[in-house]
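Let us work through a complete example step by step.
Step 1: write down the sequence.
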Amino acid sequence: MEISTTLVLIIRTSNFSTESSDFCPDLQEAFVAAKLAFREHKMKVRSNLAVTHIGPDTLEEAVQDYINRNTDLYDLPSIVSVSL
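Step 2: predict the structure and record it as tokens.
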């Protein structure tokens, strides 16, 4: 699994706190940037799908399904660069 896929999964599934004192500052900055970028990406997808969405699924389910199927459109490495 690539690091970009791993970070996207962490962002989506965790309530990870970056406030701990033993957390690497560079990694914290990258995590926060990735989290914000993912939120922006999700909002763009939601606004695009809201115009045309019809069907039994809720808009939120359709957005999550779209993001899950099109992970290659979310380019995390270009958003976050960290030298560890």
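Step 3: interpret the result. The chain has a mean pLDDT of 75.
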